[in-house]
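Check out a protein:
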Amino acid sequence: MLWHAFRHADTPKWIKGFMLAVVVYLFSPIDLIPDFLVLLGITDDLVVVTAAMWFLGKVIPEKVKNNLPMEQPDNTKTTHNTTAKPPAAVSSSVSKPLGLLLLAVLLIAALGSHPWFQAQFSNIGTFF
């Protein structure tokens, strides 16, 4: 929903700016709780991002929420209709794996930038 809202023309610019600010905060070395406190530093980011997602879910206009692209149910098993899927269903099914891959890359990048993980990787490097 957030990706759709970011790309939608009816979403106010301040909401799009807030979305970008959340992403910048996630990767920024400046945090409310420093990242060298291993569990608290990551928890701090999770709390801020979760609160931001909740807030964005409340302030995104209903017009944008009601205009979300929905997947069409796959009725090929029950009917013998050989027509092709509409283009919207094809594009949404392609974007799901891409979104999950992007989310995994962002999570790995966030964890990899944490000082504790960097110290562990350097310890492994000195072992070999």
Remarks:
- Confidence is low (pLDDT under 50) at residues 87-94.
- The radius of gyration is 20 Å.
- The helical segments are 2-7, 13-27, 38-59, 62-65, 87-112, 115-127.
- The longest helix spans residues 87-112.
